[in-house]
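Worked example 2:
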Amino acid sequence: MVVKRYLEPILEPVFHMDSYGYRPGKSAHDALAVARRRCWSHDWVLDLDIKSFFDEIDWSLLMKAVRRHTDCKWVLLYLQRWLEAPASMPDGSLVKRTRGTPQGLSSARC
């Protein structure tokens, strides 16, 4: 939460206005309302899904992007440690990861 409070005011202005996931003051209901409104004003839809997107994020590229917005050492240290933390499996075993961001059990494939 401390890292979120530090980074959010810095990164929030950079996000696209149509980005709704985990954004302050925006919800899934807001996204649905915009989608519904646009369905009545446009006669086309673009739908895409990048398979395993969060499981494949390159850590060095992610950290490079974060460093463009902050050089705060403790924030960078926490982010690096979170990325490198092993995935804890239901049986209690730990699985080493080399890429991707923690997203629940799906990150075990990394």
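Residues 1-95 form one domain. The chain has a mean pLDDT of 89.
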